[in-house]
Amino acid sequence: MPRMKNMVRLPYQKELALLRKVVDHANPGDAASVVHQMECFGVELGSAGGWAKFAAGSKAQILLLGAAGSGPSPKHVLDIGAYGGGSALHLAMALPGVHVTAVELDPVMVALARCLLGFAGVGDRVRVLPGHTRFRLPGLQGQRFSGIFADVWGAQYADVLALIHRHALLSTGSVLIADNVLRTGAAEFAGRVTGPGFHTVVMPVREVANPEEEDWMTVSVLRDAAAWETSVSEELLELQARSEHLRDEATNEGIAPEEHQDFSERAREVFRKVGIAPVSP
Predict the structure, then answer these.
(1) How many independent structural domains does the chain possess?
(2) Counting beta carbons within 10 angstroms of the beta carbon of residue 164, is it exposed (0 to 12), middle (13 to 18) or buried (19 or more)?
(3) pLDDT tens digits for range 13-67
(4) Does 120 score more than 90 pLDDT?
(5) CATH number for the domain that contains residue 39
(6) Residue 197 covered by a domain
(7) pLDDT for the residue 142
(8) Are the C-beta atoms of 53 and 72 separated by less than 8 Å?
(9) GO biological process annotations for this chain's record (predicted)?
């Protein structure tokens, strides 16, 4: 029987189960054991037909490789769309001495992230700020981040990139990493970071909850901040509009897995048509 789009779920049921999994099975103060239990939870969620909304598995590997190659002597990195703190935890664990600033819109997720990060023993190096990026990022002006990781819906990345540029949050040579580029159709963003302002590599990755589903991440090194606003093709702008519509549908009604898969295939076709494709695995 196909899944219904409007299944009744208790609020934050998945997130509370994640917290319970970590507290029951991980070791307090042991960041590696917390990461392990989060990844186990993602696999279990996938086997039940769910989606783990945090970077794990191959996505976490790309995140850490990109962050390790960020500007010289990285001291501060930014995590946009922190969710439950998984990405911030990976960054704090892999980059000793580096301070992580994470931004998350949902106040419940802010509380969850703070709990998990404190339990993992890295709360002193990670601050989780509540609020929307359009209000939070201007408040970070004056700080230069050696690396930024963005994990939001694809249609939102263009606005995030504009805020990063407007408030000068990246320096030449700094790294910008983005998740869900294929799965949620980050079309306008992909068109800009594959332009002359950045050197970008598109990496194929797999969802930890569904290893059969391919997604893309971009790892972009800033070359020239003045050249970030490159022209974007009509095909990409059309895909951007489709992504925005899909986000509205996902937020208001929910979307069936088959619908999301169809969108990903359409996005793949559009990206390849304009010359955006992942490197060979």
Answers:
(1) 1
(2) buried
(3) 888 899 999 999 999 999 999 988 988 887 787 666 665 665 555 666 777 666 6
(4) yes
(5) 3.40.50.150
(6) yes
(7) 84
(8) no
(9) catecholamine metabolic process; methylation
Segment 193-249, tens digit of pLDDT: 999 999 999 988 876 666 678 889 899 999 998 887 788 999 999 999 999 998 888
* Residue 130 lies inside a defined structural domain of this protein: yes
CA distance 155 to 250: 13
How big is the CA angle at 7 (ends 5 and 9), to the nearest 5 degrees? 140
Cβ-proximal residues to 204 (8 Å cutoff; 6+ apart), any chain: 214, 215, 216, 278, 279, 281
The answer, yes or no, to whether residue 6 has pLDDT greater than 50, is: no
Residue 215: which domain range? Answer: 13-232
pLDDT higher than 50, residue 129: yes
User: What is the dihedral angle through the alpha carbons of 62, 88, 244, 7, rounded to the nearest 10 degrees?
Assistant: 110
- Going by C-beta distance under 8 Å and a sequence separation of 6 or more, which residues neighbour residue 173? 71, 72, 221, 222
| Residue 208, strand partner residues | none
Tracing tokens 């990063």 back to the chain, one arrives at 164
**Matching residue, tokens 């790892």:** 219
H-run or E-run covering 126: strand 126-130
Q: Is 26 exposed, middle or buried (0-12, 13-18, 19+ CB in 10 A)?
A: buried
Give the Å distances, CA to CA, from 102 to 72, 216, 218. 21, 22, 19
- Token couple for 53: 């909304």
Per-residue tokens: 107: 């106040």
Residue 268 forms part of a structural domain: no
Amino acid at 46: G
